[in-house]
Amino acid sequence: MRYLYFDLYMRPILTILCLMLLVSTAKSQTWQPGYFYDVKGTKNTGLISVNPRGKGPIKGEGFIEYKEDAKAQSMKLSASDLRSFVAGRDSFIVAAAPREGWSNYDLDFVKVAVDGPIRLFEVKGSTGDGGSGFSPGISVGTGIGAGGYGGSGFGGGLGGGISIPIGGGGRRGSAKTLYFYGANTAEMKLITNENFIDVMSEIMGDEPDVVEKIQTKKFGPGNMAKLLDYFHQVHKD
Question: Is pLDDT of 26 > 50?
Answer without folding.
Answer: no
